[in-house]
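ingest -> validate -> predict -> emit
validate: passed (alphabet ok, no gaps, 215 aa)
predict: started
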Amino acid sequence: MSQQDDKKILLENSISQGISHLRNINPNFNAIVTQIGEIEFKKRDITFESLIRIIINQQLSNTVAKVIFARLESIFPDTNDISPFEIHITDSEKLKNIGLSKGKVTYIKSLANEFIANPNLVKKWATLDDENAKIEIQKIKGFGPWSANIILLSFMGRSDIFPYGDSTLRKAFLNVYGINLSETLEEIEWARPYRSILALYFWRWVDNGMKPLIN
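emit:
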């Protein structure tokens, strides 16, 4: 199997193999796993709502983002899932009044128009390799490199994604390895083709309070 094929394996089907491989080649990662245990990964469905959540979460705490999304849901009390058409016909001022910035209103409206014009948009992403999927995702207003990587890792289950733009991941790397992570990610080349697993463990380790590691 080529590296490109390996990168497209769904993470939930290869996570145990990947964890074992990374533990064997990197003592610091092994120490994280020893402390945390083997984590479970559940790939989430990509929906219009989940992409709206990504836009809302940008540069906000999870608590504030949840409040704003709840306000958005309250605009549509008679529907279980917010649809692109409902967002399309909703007045922009009404969206601003729930706490969305002018930019995020523009992004959400643009996303709705993309879904209306291209209902198979998400299915197309799934057929592409990592780099081309990132390119296509970033064509949508409001979705930069960080958002594209989060979609590929958390929603599409790609095995070799490490969102450099995530400050939590950079903080974790600095604390574990004592050096700054560069944008080229050359410092974690050893983790290919399982860099998604490294990201998942870094997030969990930070969430757990970055307890001292014992090698």
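Residues 1-10 have pLDDT under 50 and may be disordered.
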